[in-house]
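tool_call: predict_structure(chain=1)
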Amino acid sequence: MTVEIALVLGILIIAILLFLSERLRVDLIALLVLGVLAITGLVTPGEALSGFSNNAVVTVWAMFIISAGLAHTGVARVIGQYILRLAGSGEAQLIAVIMVASGVMSAFMNNIGVAALLLPVVMDLGKRTGHPPSRLLMPLAFGSLLGGLTTLIGTPPNILVSDALREYGLQPFQLLDFAPVGVVVLAGGIIFMVTIGRLILPVKDPERDFIDPRLGDLGALYALGERIFITPIHANSPLAGKSLAESQIGAVLGFNVIGILRDGRTLLSPSPDEILLPNDKLMILGRSERLAELEILGQIKVEDAVLDIDNLMSSEIDIAKVSLAPNSAFIGRNLREIDFRRRFGLNVLSILRAGQQKRTHLQHLPLTINDILLVQGPRQNIEILKDSPDFLLSEVETTEVTHLNEHLMAIHVLDDSPLVGKSLSESHLGSTSGLTVVGIARGGATLLAPPSTERLGAGDILLVEGNQEEIEALVNFQDMEIEREMAASFRDLETEEVGLAEAVLSPHSTLFDQSLRQIRFRDKYGLSVLAIWREGRAYRTNLSNMPLRLGDALLIYGHRQKMKLLAREPDFLVLYEEAQEPLNVRKAPLAVLIMAGVLLPVFLGWIPIAIAAVVGAAVMVLTRCLTMEEAYRAIEWKAVFLIAGMIPLGIAMETSGAARLLADWMIALVGGLGPLGILAGIFLLTSVTTQAMPSAAVTVLMVPIAMNTSLDMGLSPYSLLMAVAIAASASFLSPVAHPANVLVLGPGGYRFTDYIKVGVPLTIVVLALVILVLPVFWPLN
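tool_result:
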């Protein structure tokens, strides 16, 4: 093994580990790979930047624009709706028609766009026929993936392997060369899902199956039945005369005011600017016990003492900086679920996320891989945390903790306080007011980082970290009382103007990892988020601080007209058909002609597909089938930079000899099984690697391995490269393997294991069909 090969393989391994860790964006990893290859001299500067002018990259971004043109003019939706009208009401027939519709459309459009376009249509179809989304949405995603296998432009891996053939001096694949094998694989996938797959598909999750005749369907699905209560606004209440936004009922208490009873009438989904009047009665969705917890605030007093960070440390107590390890079991879980304080004996003072310090209500914040936790506690406990495989520790600089000074307070526990005699865990100070008790001053001594079992006494001075303005706001809520709990009827809370709906982040959204509070969702859209469905469970508390993820399903409540406005936002997909954005249907015939004008000369071999796609994209904008801004928004820039950045690694693997070395290992492993064994080995290696890396990156890396294997064994490169493209695109084994899978994760109520249960046998079916059919149309020898 030469030094060059070792360097290339080292860069490849590091890239794979970075992809697996998800600590960096995939496009950033690709650009770092590009830079390292150029700096080390493994590729020339021209080769390092060649990906940006590569025919495949150009074709990919141009086809994104053409697909968007078909979507904006309504062509795709009309085709989808027409096909789905044939579905009937039987489950097997529904699954077959959904997969045919998504498969046919994905042959000529971006498969993520097809899944996003048909998602509201399929949701409505499921409601009308009484079939739960979990039975229909996975077939939708898988149908879009399988349909991409049928044409050259159906998916980026197809385009990449075709362009690779041209780079090696061979005739590239033509437009319909994938069709014979792809159509058989699509048909086989549909037959599997209709016969065996639907027996494995989950019926709704038991928690989601909670059916109460008093509730509307969505209210039942999110288990909201026993969380609605009525609380009056008294004449002398400090809330009277304030707007809903100014009252901070939602921001501080985490409540959703879904209606106001006033003068014998009901005002549903009041706007944030609605002024609260004396004798109003608020219909609130939330944890009613939250009001009972507020009683403790009446018997505490915030002192004027000035505290600084030195008050939090001693010879035995220290502060440390903690982040989650790449494979931590705590990713996605919050501090309360982890039972962090009791388990590790440490306080979390703040969480640094995306450059912002979060200091209050940390217990309910799901942790992400990039969070940095500032913890305080006994040095021995911090040392123990060092040995945990779930955390990474680092030293704290003085400048990193000075921000805590302005949030340190001293709180006096009065003699008649209900806190007296209670332990810190029993006091619920953290859940009620977002405070973290970092010390207790008692009898002239200070107990720093007290354990959760420490009992409070009259006259104790609590050293706390939190937000004083929020505590003062909480005091305003002390006179709120529960007049009665409602026999919750969401059907009564829905009218022609007001209702419930589900929404998800669109694949092109820029709001990932931002919370509802950060994007000012309620103020901006005038809609309430009542629950978030994520990874098989519904979250109903502290929603405003939860970072949004692709795959989350948001249960929204409000005026239907505002839902239609939300549906026009490129960041969201509202999952009922009536809310969809009006389409420019007058341009539909023109968009069809443009698409035909792209495909026909490519099919006849007159011009390269990259040129045809660029001209088609330009004409789409020129004829105003979509605007230039919409065209830019339609491009999956992450995919473009990912492919362009990884192409130099494919070049380095070829020129250094690393690809030949890996091909030799492949031959040594499966060469004894003959040509079909090698074909199966190439397919399985590609399929497994796709679970750790984006499919486009896997294709770029597998091309030189497949080409060298074909040369060494005297096999047809066309057969092996087509197997690579099919395996890379058949990403069924996990929700993160393809954006189309993630898109249906929340609305379908799926868990990670659901994809494995259905995806593994479907992948085996595709492999079997490839082994049987591909050599017939593309002989191996």
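agent: The chain has a mean pLDDT of 82. Proceeding to next step.
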